[in-house]
Design goal:
Layout: H1 2-29, H2 34-55, H3 60-85
Helix pairs in contact: 1-2, 1-3, 2-3
Amino acid sequence: MNRIAAALVLAAFALPALAENACDAQAADKKLAGAAKTSFLKKCNTDSCNAQAADKHLAGAAKASFTKKCVRDAAAPASAATSASKP
C-alpha cells in the first residue's frame, strides 16, 4: 500500500513537468517566440492543468487552487531556464 501511495505522489509531481515539456515541444514545432510563445505556453499549461483537475474530479475552490499551483509549477522551470541563460 505504501508503494502505491508513493507512486501516486511522484506521479502528481511529474504531471505538470510532462505537460510543460509537451507545451514547449508544441511551441517549438510552431516556431513561436517572444510574446506569442509566452501566450501559447500560458494557455497550453492552463488547459493541461484544467484537464488534470477534471481527471481528479475537483471542483470549486479545490479546482482553482490546484490549477493555480499547477500552472505556477509548470511555468517555474521555463522561467528558471530563461534566467539561467542570461549572462
